[in-house]
Amino acid sequence: MRLLVDLPAGLDYNEWLASHTMALFDHVNLVYGTVSEFCTPSGCPDMTGPGQKIYLWFDEKGKKTKVAAPQYIDYVMTFIQKTISDETIFPTKYANEFPSSFESIVRKIVRLLFHVVAHLYAAHFKEVALLGLHTHLNLTFAHLTALHHRFALIDAKETEVLQDLEVALRLTEDPTAEASSEDACDAASEATETDSRTHLQDEASSDNKS
Ligand SMILES: [Zn+2]
Fold first, then answer.
1. Beta-carbon count within 10 A of 171 CB
2. What domain range is 207 assigned to?
3. 109 and 156 in one domain?
4. 39 appears as a binding residue in the annotation
5. pLDDT tens, residue by residue, 77-92
6. Where is the composition biased (Basic and acidic residues) (predicted)?
7. Is 63 in the same domain as 110?
8. Is 185 annotated as a binding residue?
């Protein structure tokens, strides 16, 4: 998986990000599509992730709003579909160039896709497994994680809800495995600091989250 996302020599970084982003979108869309009939406003009144996590949608004014999971995911998929079909953002013609904001747009897409994956694990894993698609979901998560690890696309604060799964699927080293208790303590306080910082950044950049 790690080799899969390494940028091949001579290939443009944006080009590479674009192809992985589009592939991830297709895979997440496919898995969610198979269980979407179980994701209803009454069954999933909140956009949940593992461990009581609830994702709030940022409306056009950058205001956080609580929406049901199917609504949230519809917003996500519509936004991504619109964005990757936009020739000025995801150029397909040779002469067209990527905008300077391309990487930040990709970061946003990958973060939103992560939310959908998190919801699938938290609320619909049973249905996914019954349909025999859990391997596909795990692979999609592995792909997303590998891409994120390679290019640092998502805040650690976001990915920690699926940290245990990363370890279980051996996508990452168990951070607690070899650290002494003192080291672990340091790491924990460091993580808390980083958390509050990224949180502030998140708040500050909420305006452009339309
Ligand atoms: Zn749901």
1. 20
2. 173-210
3. yes
4. yes
5. 999 999 999 999 999 8
6. 194-210
7. yes
8. no
Kindly state the tokens that stand for 115.
């939310």
Distance CA 19, CA 1 (A): 15
CA of 124 to the centre of ligand 1 (A): 6
Together in a domain, 187 and 164? no
User: Could you tell me if 131 and 206 lie in one domain?
Assistant: no
- The H or E element that residue 65 is part of is strand 64-65
190: closest CA among 39, 198, 52, 103? 198
On whether both 57 and 142 belong to a single domain, the answer is: yes
* Residue 35 contacts residue 124 (beta carbons within 8 Å): yes
Residues 6+ apart with CB under 8 A from 105: 83, 89, 99
Are 32 and 120 a contacting pair, CB within 8 Å?
A: yes
CA of 170 to the centre of ligand 1 (A): 26
Q: For the chain, how many structural domains are there in total?
A: 2
Q: Is the pLDDT of residue 203 over 60?
A: no
Distance, CA 131 to ligand 1 centroid (Å)? 16
Residues 127 and 201 occupy one common structural domain: no
The H-assigned helical ranges of the chain are 2-5, 13-35, 69-84, 102-123, 125-130, 134-151, 156-159, 163-168, 181-204
Is residue 185 scored above 80 in pLDDT? no
Judge whether 102 and 110 are in contact, CB under 8 Å.
no
